[in-house]
Amino acid sequence: RLVVCEDIVDHTNVGAIIRCAAGLGWDGVLLAPRAADPLYRRAVKTSMGTVFSLPWARMEDWRGGLDELKERGFTVVAMALSDDAVPLPQFVREQAREPHRIALLMGTEGSGLSSRWIDQADVVVTIPMARQVDSLNVAAAAAVACYAMGPGE
Fold this sequence. Notes:
By secondary structure, this protein is an alpha/beta fold.
């Protein structure tokens, strides 16, 4: 199970995502070419040092990188606000705990995932929100999704 970060430019968010992926039993993090440097001081601090223990890599090809994940057997799951998005609890009930590879796509802080990546995803998933709040901070959303789709250990 991998968290894939598209253009998340805030070092604190990158560090927090790495920390939650490590703490919730995920296998690694992939960063799009324009994502913040996880070795930047603030990212290291926010990750509580997990950036040194959880495998991470920077994608070389933003445009075709998701195709490579699919070729390697990953189900590409986009976290996005979309009319056709599946609510996270439904996705978890239907398939997230099956023993297959998941690549969880998280988008940039302002506009979320690019339409290119959403269109390439196998499924779009959203976290149901209350009180007219449309979304969570990207690191908080990653934590919720990683917990829900995690290995369950």
